[in-house]
Amino acid sequence: MRHKDEFGLLKRVSTGDPDAFRILYEHYSPSVYSFIRKYLRSSELSDDICQNVFIKIWEQREQMSSVLDFSAWVFTIAKRQSLDFLKRAATEQSAMNIILQSYPSDNDRLDSAYQLEEYMNFIEKVLLRMPPQTQHVFNLCRQQSKSYEEAASELGVTRNAIKKHMVRSMKILKEAAENELGISFTLLLILLSSQL
Q: How far, in Å, are 34, 53, 151 from residue 75 at the CA level?
């Protein structure tokens, strides 16, 4: 994209023009996704972080008219978000290891099964608060382990629509885990995986 064209788009984005934002997104998201994938080595996580990068850009759109090099700016945000995610995951994994090490070695299987059931019930309750289509997309992608492409094909929608539903569901689950359980969603996932 030529600098002059990009500068014009950034000015339009700064005024809240969704069409200009879509053009920037379509131009940059494939390379931002590839960049993030080098850090995270996971397609699904890279999709989620890539979406978060562009959500952050949209939330800060008023600043766009003063950005001189959008390419450098977007990749800086992508790198920061990727490294923040890895740092959180490492910290939470360390905390989880400490918690698991402090469990008695003869930990009662009934307690673990009960705790797992409680976490699963919590997730199910939070899912019920979501719009039906978002619930269905979450079920396909997370509970049935379908790719975004497979879910899009099954529902007759675009891959981007699936990504939007997943970003929405993860945001709702993250907020619920933090506000209602007092833990991060990543830690909740670690707790669940340690008991499956």
A: 11, 9, 28
Structure confidence by residue, pLDDT tens digits, 102-146: 444 444 444 556 666 777 788 888 888 889 999 899 888 877 888
Could you tell me the CA-to-CA distances from 184 to 51, 99, 174, 179, 188 in Å, in that order? Answer: 19, 15, 6, 9, 6
Tens of pLDDT along 79-102?
A: 999 888 888 777 666 655 655 554
Cβ–Cβ under 8 Å, residues 169 and 132: no
Alpha carbon of residue 137 to chain centroid: 14
Torsion of CA 122, 124, 128, 132, to 10 degrees: 150
Kindly list the structural domains of the chain, giving each domain's residue range(s) and its CATH number in brackets, ordered by start.
3-94 (1.10.1740.10), 107-194 (1.10.10.10)
* Global model pTM greater than 0.90: no
Q: How far apart are CA 172 and CA 165, in angstroms?
A: 11
Amino acid at 147: S
Task: State how far the Cα of 7 lies from the Cα of 67, in Å rounded to an integer.
Answer: 8
Angle at 191 between CA 187 and CA 193, to 5 degrees: 115
